[in-house]
Write a structure and sequence with these properties.
heterodimer, A: mainly beta, 4-stranded antiparallel β-sheet, 0% helix, globular, B: mainly beta, 12 strands, 60% strand
């Protein structure tokens, strides 16, 4: 049963600490998205990659957030230093590409719930 | 540019009664449209999708949606609500641009089902 795997599922940390969230996309999917979900803002697109290359990270606070795909099986989202306002659920989603496009359907992981004290 | 508006932040129904979750979109071109469901503490799961085939789309768990281009709507319906349908529902519009699709999510509609 292919699925997107995210770790950690829950993380509690103190302000100023570095946080790294990881995502394993579905094998063969070469488009990966990072979303943040909060009650106030809903779902926000932070960044996305196609074939490991970042295509858009305009949704991320550049000074503290960074997203990478070291290889096709791993995407990371790092926050350094973390702040209480970063508390949210962070979702990774992957999608297949057909003829250069992915058709639109996303496959979501279960999310990483981050609490910054 | 594209956008999607979910007209109700909360919808409350009784078990066994019909469900209607409303979604309007704005898109310069023919979009792909989706409905996702999110149960508490879970990720989002695809309910159904429209990609320029039949305008009435059937999804999982008895849900369906009708694409109406003249009204720029893609409302989600179900004839009879079940307690397990209580969740957050997201309407999504996705437009091809430069070989990529960027999905745009609505703010979500919380479906509450009363016994």
């Amino acid at each position: 049963d292919a699925r997107v795997t995210q770790t950690p599922r829950h993380k509690v940390t103190e302000m100023g600490q570095e946080v790294t969230m990881r995502c394993q996309p579905i094998l063969g999917h070469n488009t990966v998205f990072w979303y943040r979900q909060t009650m106030m803002q809903g779902l926000e697109l932070l960044a996305y990659f196609r074939n490991r290359a970042p295509l858009d990270d305009s949704g991320m606070p550049k000074d503290r957030f960074s997203a990478e795909m070291p290889d096709a099986t791993l995407a990371t989202l790092k926050i350094q230093p973390s702040e209480p306002r970063d508390s949210a659920v962070y979702f990774c989603a992957s999608a297949p590409t057909r003829q250069g496009t992915f058709g639109g359907e996303l496959f979501f992981g279960e999310g990483s719930r981050l609490t910054v004290l | 540019a594209q956008s999607v508006t979910q007209l109700d932040s909360h919808v409350s129904v009784s078990e066994g009664t019909p469900v209607l979750l409303r979604c309007n979109y704005s898109s310069s071109y023919s979009p792909s449209l989706f409905w996702y469901v999110q149960h508490p503490n879970k990720g989002l799961q695809l309910l159904l999708k429209y990609t320029s085939a039949a305008t009435l789309v059937k999804g999982i768990n008895g849900f369906e949606a009708e694409f109406k281009k003249s009204e720029t709507s893609f409302h989600l319906t179900k004839p009879s609500a079940h307690m397990s349908d209580a969740a957050e529902y997201f309407c999504v519009v996705s437009l091809a641009s430069g070989g990529s699709y960027i999905p745009t999510f609505g703010r979500g509609t919380s479906l509450i089902v009363h016994p």
